[in-house]
Specification:
By secondary structure, the chain is mostly helical. The protein has helices spanning 2-34, 40-72, 74-92, 98-101, 104-132, 140-144, 146-168, 171-176, 181-197, 204-212, 219-258, 264-292, 294-317, 321-339, 342-349, 355-372, 374-381, 389-408, 414-421. It is globular and about 60 Å long. The two termini are 19 Å apart.
């Protein structure tokens, strides 16, 4: 399990590195370089719009790779999604700016961001099923949290490189070529991830499905026909986690540097400190989920997120690094209280024959609802001289929506269900 979980974590870390490095670049440099005729605010909004395209592509990626995972195995998903995302990210670092090729530059950026999202949409389903379908029942939440640590590692890696470049290079050098280096580094990381995953074994559940001839012929059609309500509920439930994460890691970076005058290095350092705490908290929350259930932790995380958005805005407005770290950290702990659980929770909600498609589509739909729009809406709402309370209202409203969705979802923790029904132990999700 440790070898499988490590391979899963490494892959998600690399793919989320690819995804996050674009968000950081969008907040810092892509607006002036690819949309130079826009005002600073409009340029940032346009850069965030290309950022959002990646989220819009993720559900499509979950459909494409989910079909592969449910028809041909979880293992091909792990390799194909990593290769696609890595190649697209390296290509972003090679795109000429608007000054060189005109309007073709933002269109190329848009296309490559779409391909990034397509690959990442497939990655999550394959990674969590690798661990969930191998894990022993009593520790399924813990082992399935390893892919959920990947985003923290990927973010720290992406922003650590950007932070180092910001410290070593002048603003002119960073704007000229320095921002491209993290994208080029994605190629080496993708090769390392492929090497780690080369010996990963297919999961027991898929081998059983293949042997019995019970694989779904059309996984998406089966999901839509029999589980559409579940997909919508899980998408709505996860929206606040995405919204909180990208409000902290993407919108706040642009807002603090452009509107509050805080240095780029300082803001990145504050965000990275909060994300590091989030990464450490992920397996700890997953252990609680194995003991007390998936649904209670999700409800607590949603409620905490909805309540914390106003203090988050107030603390960020102080421009004090210590208070900013506090605001960011509490917001991300609320978010990870939910997201540490979903690696086990979502697969347990679906039968094995359509699990890769159903779990991945629901997960990535939450990204569209919460992640794609948050930087754009927050930037627009913060366009004023006073504190951006409209951003807090928006984020709190998403938190209440997610709270309602989680309240309608069932508990799936095997230990709790066994206590209620007297069912026997199983080695992996039914």
């Amino acid at each position: 399990m440790l070898r499988l979980a490590t391979a899963s974590l490494a892959g998600t870390a690399i793919e989320f590195y690819d995804f996050f490095v674009y968000g950081t670049a969008a907040a810092l440099v892509l607006g002036p370089l690819f949309f130079p005729s826009f005002s600073p605010l409009a340029g940032t909004l346009a850069a965030f719009a290309t950022f959002a395209v990646g989220f819009l592509a993720r559900p499509l990626g979950s459909v494409v790779f989910g079909h592969i995972g449910d028809r041909y195995g979880r293992r091909p998903v792990l390799l194909g999604s990593l290769l696609l995302t890595g190649a697209a990210t390296v290509a972003v670092g090679c795109v000429p700016t608007y000054d060189s090729i005109g309007v073709a530059a933002p269109f190329l950026l848009l296309l490559l961001r779409f391909l990034q999202g397509l690959g990442l949409g497939g990655e999550w389903g394959g990674a969590v099923l690798l661990t969930a379908e191998h894990a022993p029942e009593r520790r399924r939440g813990l082992w399935s949290s390893f892919p959920q640590i990947g985003p923290s590692v990927g973010f720290l890696l992406a922003n650590g490189i950007v932070l180092a470049l910001s410290a070593l290079l002048s603003d002119a050098q960073f704007t000229s070529w320095g921002w491209r280096v993290p994208f080029w580094a994605a190629g080496l990381l993708a090769l390392a991830g492929l090497w780690l995953r080369r010996t990963v074994e297919e999961t027991p559940q898929f081998r059983e499905l293949a042997a019995s001839g019970s694989r779904a012929q059309a996984p998406l059609a089966e999901v839509v026909r029999g589980h559409w309500r579940l997909v919508l509920l899980t998408g709505g439930a996860l929206a606040v986690g995405y919204a909180a994460f990208y409000a902290v890691t993407t919108w706040s970076l642009a807002y603090a540097t452009e509107r509050l005058g805080v240095g780029r290095t300082t803001v990145l350092g504050c965000i990275m400190a909060a994300v590091a705490v989030m990464g450490v908290a992920t397996p700890l929350m997953a252990v609680l989920a194995d003991r007390y259930g998936r649904r209670p932790l999700c409800l607590i995380g949603c409620a905490a997120s909805a309540l914390w958005m106003f203090p988050l805005v107030a603390l960020m407005r102080t421009a004090d690094p210590v208070l900013m770290v506090l605001g960011f950290t509490v917001a991300l702990i609320g978010m990870v209280t939910m997201f540490s659980v979903v690696g086990a929770y979502l697969p347990e909600l679906y039968p094995p024959r359509i699990r890769c498609t159903g779990a991945a589509v629901g997960y990535n739909l939450g990204g569209v609802l919460g992640g794609a729009l948050t930087p754009i809406v927050a930037t627009a709402l913060a366009d004023g001289a006073g504190p951006p309370w409209g951003v807090a209202v928006y984020l709190s409203a998403i938190g209440l929506l997610s709270l309602g969705c989680f309240a309608l979802l069932p508990e799936t923790a095997p230990a709790l269900l066994r206590t209620r029904t007297g069912a026997a132990d199983s080695a992996a999700p039914a």
